[in-house]
Amino acid sequence: METEASPVPRRELKRPVLVAPSPGALRALFRVLSARPVRGSAVRLADRAVGEFLRRTDNLPGVARDEWLTLRSLLYSFHRGLKTGTISPRAWQGFLEFAAHALGPHPAREAFCKTYGQSPPGFLTISPTRACNLNCTGCYAGTEESPGTLSFSTFDRIVQEMEDLWGARFAVISGGEPFLYRSEGRDLLDVAERHPKLYFLVYTNGTVIDRSVAKRLAEVGNVTPAISVEGKAPTTERRRGEGVFAEVVEAFGHLRAEGVPFGISMTATRDNCDELLSDEVVRFYFEEQGALYGWIFQYMPIGRGYDLALMVTPEQRLRLQRRMWDVIRTKKVFLMDFWNSGTACHGCVAAGRSGGYFYINWNGDVTPCVFIPYAGANIHRLYAAGGTINDLMKIPFFADIRQWQLGYGYKTKPEATRNLIRPCPHRDHFDFLLPLIKRHGPQPINREAQMALEDPAYIQGLLAYGAACAEVLDPVWVREYLDREADRVAGVPAEAVAQQR
Ligand code: SF4
């Protein structure tokens, strides 16, 4: 493990300053604002206030607009969930508790800033087990190695450190199938129960969420499952297996009955890209089934049988981007695409960026991102050497990615911001990432990740993909984001811009 980091200079943009009220005050305020008689007006007021706040930042107008559309879609999604009862009062309390602590001050955040010259990462994504009951095509967890599992003590220690050392209040749990996690006689929900100030987003295939799991989720109150689907029923079953769609719909029913907020997670491939956000799919999941939010992951050629031909084409990616913002704007549904939402989170959030994250898998391997399968550290070795998760900040492989993010679009001056709709060092800028991997020698986390680095077709294919995306997406960036008069350009939601003004 390397120990010296490259220096990461700070560049701050001018932003309106907000003083964080105490969690108690925030909790009381949220409770009042979310009470049924005032909620509708409160949402509309908050919507306008967020738009106004973002308009005053130094952001490019298109970037401010995307941030605003994202935040308002979240507000309206909560409003819908409370109105229809898909979020129970108890689940809402759990969320408010998290929000009050997340937005309130935390001494660890200040201490971290002083030591590392940046705000701490905002969360971790942890895959505590590789064990899974399905066998989906192209899954990043699907290698042929034996199932790995983090011990409960290690899992819990990581979460506790995240809370204590970073003041973080959010954890993403992935897999394998997280609801199959067992260690030391405990399961995933035991971890959630031990950390009531945290909120857990759990990516799951949904097939093990029966009535009793849904009841426990309701009791715990700080977990939301994001269930994987691939579009309509036949497309979902083609990738995930026969009978899975019916099981997923059953899980939706159990969660609705218990008032546990849930969302969906979709992998966009060349085959299902145009189906994913079709009217029929949007209506089914968000209107009929009551999903609160949706995550879109464009297929990345990592994991079992990586296949570049499954990646969405640059043209499909642009169509998906257009359609996603259209759904967010018109339906006010909260949607996030790890790549196409780059404008809403100021680019890549990997490698421990301020507010960003690291990924830790079942073997304790720590990678910059779920989609970069090269480990700069291993949590077991780090703990054995007397370290904490703060030591991840010193790893040069991670620090160099953060350095690149600073130059690319995070805290850069607006006009110098590079294309945030192709923000990914792996998917879009392999010409940057490959030499970095060669220089630092992070450990491939599985055989496929090793093979990919030795496979000329993979390397040439990803480089060509990045170049092809640049050709399609750079003119869009220049026309619709860099140009300060961009609001007038076709494709930009005019009514949203009008409201923002
Ligand atoms: S490495 Fe790529 S996928 Fe991961 S956070 Fe950065 S942009 Fe997103």
UniProtKB/TrEMBL annotation:
<keyword id="KW-0408">Iron</keyword>
<protein>
    <submittedName>
        <fullName>Radical SAM domain protein</fullName>
    </submittedName>
</protein>
<dbReference type="InterPro" id="IPR007197">
    <property type="entry name" value="rSAM"/>
</dbReference>
<feature type="domain" description="Radical SAM core">
    <location>
        <begin position="118"/>
        <end position="331"/>
    </location>
</feature>
<dbReference type="InterPro" id="IPR058240">
    <property type="entry name" value="rSAM_sf"/>
</dbReference>
<keyword id="KW-0949">S-adenosyl-L-methionine</keyword>
<dbReference type="GO" id="GO:0003824">
    <property type="term" value="F:catalytic activity"/>
</dbReference>
<keyword id="KW-0479">Metal-binding</keyword>
<dbReference type="InterPro" id="IPR006638">
    <property type="entry name" value="Elp3/MiaA/NifB-like_rSAM"/>
</dbReference>
<dbReference type="GO" id="GO:0046872">
    <property type="term" value="F:metal ion binding"/>
</dbReference>
<dbReference type="GO" id="GO:0051536">
    <property type="term" value="F:iron-sulfur cluster binding"/>
</dbReference>
<dbReference type="Pfam" id="PF04055">
    <property type="entry name" value="Radical_SAM"/>
</dbReference>
<dbReference type="InterPro" id="IPR013785">
    <property type="entry name" value="Aldolase_TIM"/>
</dbReference>
<keyword id="KW-0411">Iron-sulfur</keyword>
